[in-house]
Design brief:
There is one protein chain. By secondary structure, the protein is mainly alpha-helical. It folds into 2 domains: 41 residues, no CATH class; 97 residues. Helix 3 packs antiparallel against helix 4 and helix 4 runs antiparallel to helix 5. The protein starts with a helix and ends in a 5-residue tail after the last helix. About 14% of the residues have low confidence.
Length: 147
C-alpha cells in the first residue's frame, strides 16, 4: 500500500512533462504486453497443423478411391469445402475452428469412400444375382422333364 502512495505522490508532485512521459511509457509497455499475449494466444499448435494435414491426406485418398464415381461425389465435395475452411481457420489462427473443420473434412472423406465402395459392392452383387438367374433359367430349360 505504501508503494502505491509513493507512486501516486510522485506522479502528482512531478511537473506535467515528466508525468506524461511516465504515462506514455506505461501505456507503451502495457500495449506491448497485450500484443505479446494476444499473439501467444492466437498461435496455432503443431498438433492442429498436423490434423489439418492429415485431413488433407484423407481427402486426397478419398479422391483417388472414389475417382470419378458419382457415388460419394457430394460428400467428397463437402470434404473439400471443410478442408478449405480448416486451412482458412488455420491461417487466421483459429485453432478450435481449424480442428473442427479438419475433423469434419476427414469424416466426409471417409463417407465418400464408403459410399463409393458400397455402390461398387452393390453393383457386383447385382451382377452375381443376374448370373445366378441366368444359370437357373438355363438349368430349367435343359431339364424340364425332371419337374
Amino acid at each position: 500500500m505504501n508503494q502505491y502512495l509513493q507512486i501516486y505522490r510522485h506522479l502528482h508532485t512531478q511537473p506535467a512533462r515528466s508525468r506524461h512521459s511516465f504515462k506514455k511509457a506505461l501505456a507503451v509497455t502495457l500495449c506491448a504486453s497485450a500484443l505479446g499475449l494476444l499473439s501467444a494466444c492466437s498461435g496455432v499448435s503443431q498438433l492442429t497443423k498436423e490434423r489439418v494435414a492429415q485431413s488433407e491426406t484423407s481427402v486426397q485418398q478419398a479422391q483417388q478411391t472414389a475417382g470419378k464415381s458419382e457415388h460419394g461425389a457430394v460428400e467428397l465435395q463437402q470434404a473439400r469445402e471443410k478442408l478449405d475452411a480448416a486451412k482458412s481457420a488455420l491461417a487466421k489462427g483459429q485453432q478450435q475452428q481449424a480442428e473442427r473443420m479438419a475433423a469434419q473434412a476427414h469424416l466426409y472423406a471417409e463417407l465418400a469412400v464408403a459410399k463409393s465402395q458400397s455402390a461398387d459392392a452393390r453393383k457386383s452383387a447385382d451382377e452375381v444375382l443376374a448370373s445366378l438367374n441366368t444359370l437357373r433359367q438355363e438349368t430349367e430349360r435343359s431339364t424340364p422333364a425332371q419337374r
